[in-house]
Amino acid sequence: MLSSYLSLLLLLSPFTLAAATVVITPISPVAQAPSLETSSPFEPYPSSLKNWEIFYCGDPRKPESQVHNLIVLLTRMESHLKALIADARLGMSSTHGYAPFFKTARNIRRVTAQYQTILDGNPIIVSEERGKQLGTRTPPPRFFCVNEENDRLKALSDACKKAPEEPILVQQGMEVLLVCPKFWSVPQFVDPALAAFHCPKMVNGKFQEGDMSLARATVYANLVHQLVRTYDRGMDPKNPQEEVPSMQDAVEMSSRESMNSAINFGYYAGAVAMGCTEFPRILGRNDELRS
User: Fold this and answer.
1) Backbone phi and psi for residue 148, each to the nearest 5 degrees, phi listed first
2) How many CB atoms within 10 Å of residue 291?
3) Distance (Å, rounded) from C-alpha 107 to C-alpha 179?
4) What is the DSSP code (8-state) at residue 140?
5) Is the Cβ–Cβ distance between 229 and 260 less than 8 Å?
């Protein structure tokens, strides 16, 4: 879907991606940020947090800016990922969904490694073609905030318009995550105290048909899903990723299939963050745990 914006990303030099070395404007000190009097709303305003790079998300000096809200999300995400990794290490003893989404304790190491990669903000291993264009095969993860009023990013805006329900768009083999307009209308997190209102309901012992709410209810779970797709580490290179259409389909996967479905990582992240404890029994024909 997003291959059409590759050429546009390269045209954004010298501000962003064309060179292997990117000049980042720190969030502080304020004196280093562009002048308000001489800058437009659509300056790149390159910012960073740890290894994350952020572009076109507004003036970092303004608390109402998109970059400020994105940094709040990434900062809060760290504690949630640590809790998620701790829960995953419980394996089959987890009460928050490890078993239905990953099936066996043999997957613990690979599951926790995926989440640890996100927590560390490791460089992305991009495709060979992309690496030649950037001058490196291991650029940092980069967020681009998409605004349809920004003519410079029109091709990126068009990509978001084609998927209006997606908060974030990625393409495997690239290091860029597009922050689409939908991103700003979805809650970043849900209070676990309200889990009874937000955790998915089941019908006859199964998730409801087509329900994807664990990965869709919060930006956090959606971002985890898309980052696993972006990193694509721990996936079986002999088997392409499978994006299953619903949570029940994910539950009915085998353990090997589960590890090749990036959205499973989003489902599980959402379940742990919201404190969900009610899941279908695992009775699928491919399941190692069927009774």
Assistant:
1) -65, -15
2) 6
3) 31
4) P
5) no
